[in-house]
Write a structure and sequence with these properties.
two-stranded antiparallel sheet; 2 strands; 189 residues; mainly alpha
Length: 189
């Protein structure tokens, strides 16, 4: 199942470049959607590791290299940030009762909400910046921040601070792996 999912993501990114990275990172801020694989593969595409996969932004193609990496990482940051704001809005306006009724669609259980609430009580707003920069944890930060009524003007900059190292870091790791991607991808199978 995981191999099929990562294969679908990599094909989507290979065909649609920055637009796919943006869309997948937007979704992964609210749903656990293998954002780690998305950014690793985006970096590998930027390095020119795959024939036929290219980085195109508004009709302008980038040769593989530094600017292609920056374009993929920025697309990831924008998607991650807007997805986090969407997650915050779901939590702020839907609240805990909404998530207890419909959270299964977002893979949010009452236990996960309780755990996130304890983190917010213990570490405060810092939970947003740190949580969004940590793989796996990041999908369970934005919605509880909205439920906790963290103000959007405080949440947004912290979310951006968390998204930047995640996207540039994993994108950079994928870029560094370059043509070794097949070995890394097989580890996810």
């Amino acid at each position: 199942m995981l191999a099929s999912l990562t294969g679908s993501f990599t094909t989507f990114i290979g065909n649609h470049g920055v637009y796919a990275v943006f869309a997948l990172m937007l979704l992964s801020a609210v749903l656990p959607a293998a954002s780690e694989v998305v950014m690793l593969y985006a970096g590998a595409v930027a390095a020119g590791a795959f024939a036929g996969a290219h980085v195109v932004v508004f009709g302008h193609g980038f040769a593989s290299g530094g600017w292609a990496y920056v374009a993929m990482a920025v697309a990831g940051v924008l998607g991650c940030f807007l997805g986090a704001v969407l997650g915050w809005a779901i939590g702020a306006f839907g609240g805990r009762p909404f998530l207890e009724r419909h959270g299964r669609w977002l893979h949010v259980t009452p236990q996960k909400l309780d755990r996130a609430h304890r983190w917010f009580e213990r570490f405060g707003a810092l939970t947003v910046a740190v949580g969004l920069s940590v793989p796996v944890v990041r999908s369970f930060v934005a919605i509880p921040a909205g439920i906790a009524r963290l103000e959007l003007r405080r949440f947004a900059p912290l979310a951006l601070i968390g998204c930047i190292p995640f996207c540039f870091g994993l994108g950079g790791a994928g870029y560094a792996l370059g043509s070794s991607w097949d070995r890394v991808h097989s580890a996810f199978r």
